[in-house]
Write a structure and sequence with these properties.
By secondary structure, the protein is of the alpha+beta class. The chain is about 45% helix and about 15% strand. The protein folds into 3 domains: about 5-70, no CATH class; about 90-170, Immunoglobulin-like (Sandwich); about 185-340, Tetratricopeptide repeat domain (Serine Threonine Protein Phosphatase 5, Tetratricopeptide repeat, Alpha Horseshoe), CATH 1.25.40.
Length: about 350
C-alpha cells in the first residue's frame, strides 16, 4: 500500500530531545524514521498546536455556556408577578395589613426567626405589601413586622409542610406616638413642588430618608413658605438627630401655621429634649388648645409641668392623657410613667 495513504503525524519531544520529525505509519511500524524538511515540520507542528488549542477553547466555551444557562432554583421574591416556586422546603407568603383591613400603604420590614436554630432572615415588602420566604425548613418561626408610624406586629407560625405554600396575614396597629406625615395644604403648592412633596412623603413613610430628603429639598426651594414642608423637613432633621436645623424648621412651621397641633406637639417634644421646659410648656399649652382631644399633647404637657415641679397640673393632664388612650399611657417612656407608674 502506498505510504501516501497513511497520514503523517508529528512527534514532539517534551523533554528537550532532538528536533521533531514527521513520519508515516509504515515507517513507524518498521522503526525506521526518516527526516523531513524543516518547513514541513514547522507546518505540521503549527497545525497540531492549533488543533489542540481549538479543542481546549471549545471545551471551555461549552462549559461556560452550560454554566450560563443553568436555571435558578429559587424565584425572585421581589417580583410580584412570580407565583410559581420550586423549593425543597416550605414557602411562606406574608401579607401586611393596616388596622382597617387594607394592604399597608408603605414598605414594611419583615424579620423571620427560625426558633430551632435562631437563624434570622429579613425581607422588605413589595408594593403589594407582601414578603416571600422560600425553601424554609419545617420548624416553628417567629415573625416581626415593622413600618414607619406603626407598632411592631408579631406572630408565631408553625405547622409548615415541605413543598407547600402558606399565605399568612399580619395586621399592624397605628403607633399612638407616631407623627402624621401627610401634607394637608399640598393642593395649594405649585405643581412641581406638590409632586416632589408627595414623592418625598412616600419615601419618608417607607423609611427611605435619603430619597425623602432629596425630594423635599427640591420642593422647599420652590415653595419655602409652606408650613407642611417646614414641618416635614423638621421631622426629617429630628430623625437624623440634627436638632438645631429641626428646631429652625419647626419654629418656622409654627409661625406659618400657629394652630397646627402636630407641629406644636413635635416642637414641644424637641424643647423637652433640649431641657427648655418653659418653651415646652408654652408650646404644648397651645397644642392642647389647638386640639383638646389629642392625648399625646396632654401627655407631653404633663411632663413639661412635672419638670417645672407643677405637680397638680402634671397629674391633671396625665389623667386626661390616660382617659384618651385606649391601650394605656400615650407616652410610655415619659417621666410621669417612671415616677408615678401610669
Amino acid at each position: 500500500m502506498p505510504a501516501s495513504m497513511f497520514p503523517e503525524v508529528s512527534v514532539f519531544c517534551p523533554n528537550g530531545g532532538p528536533p521533531n520529525h514527521s513520519v508515516s505509519e509504515p515507517a513507524m511500524n518498521q522503526a525506521n524514521c526518516s527526516t523531513v524538511s524543516r518547513s514541513n515540520h514547522s507546518r505540521r507542528r503549527i497545525w497540531f498546536l492549533a488543533a489542540n488549542l481549538g479543542f481546549t477553547v471549545c471545551v471551555l466555551v461549552s462549559h461556560g455556556a452550560l454554566g450560563q444557562t443553568r436555571p435558578s432554583t429559587l424565584p425572585d421574591p421581589t417580583n410580584a408577578m412570580m407565583r410559581t416556586y420550586n423549593p425543597q422546603g416550605a414557602t411562606l407568603v406574608l401579607t401586611v395589613l393596616s388596622e382597617n383591613g387594607t394592604r399597608l400603604d408603605r414598605q414594611a420590614v419583615v424579620k423571620l426567626t427560625n426558633l430551632s436554630t435562631q437563624k434570622v432572615m429579613w425581607q422588605t415588602t413589595t408594593k403589594g405589601a407582601e414578603a416571600t420566604f422560600v425553601d424554609l425548613p419545617v420548624v416553628r418561626y417567629d415573625v416581626d413586622v415593622s413600618a414607619v408610624g406603626y407598632l411592631t406586629g408579631n406572630k408565631e407560625i408553625s405547622g409548615l409542610g415541605a413543598l407547600n405554600t402558606y399565605r399568612v396575614e399580619i395586621t399592624l396597629q397605628r403607633d399612638p406616638n407616631s407623627i402624621d406625615l401627610s401634607a394637608p395644604t399640598v393642593s395649594q403648592m405649585p405643581k412641581k413642588a406638590r409632586n416632589e412633596t408627595l414623592r418625598g412623603i412616600a419615601a419618608l413613610t417607607s423609611g427611605n430618608f435619603k430619597e425623602a430628603q432629596k425630594r423635599l429639598d427640591v420642593a422647599y426651594k420652590i415653595y419655602p413658605d409652606s408650613a407642611d414642608l417646614n414641618f416635614l423637613l423638621g421631622y426629617m432633621a429630628l430623625q437624623q438627630k440634627q436638632v438645631e436645623p429641626a428646631k429652625n424648621y419647626l419654629e418656622r412651621a409654627a409661625t406659618l401655621d400657629p394652630h397646627n397641633a402636630r407641629t406644636l406637639i413635635l416642637l414641644g417634644r424637641l424643647y423637652l429634649q433640649r431641657e427648655d421646659y418653659a418653651a415646652a410648656r408654652t408650646t404644648l399649652e397651645h397644642a392642647v388648645i389647638a386640639d383638646p382631644q389629642d392625648g399625646t399633647a396632654h401627655a407631653f404637657l404633663a411632663e413639661a409641668y412635672f419638670r417645672q415641679l407643677d405637680f397638680d397640673k402634671a397629674l391633671q393632664h396625665a389623667q386626661i392623657a390616660l382617659d384618651k388612650s385606649k391601650t394605656g399611657p400615650v407616652r410610655r417612656n415619659s417621666c410621669l410613667g417612671r415616677h408615678w407608674r401610669i
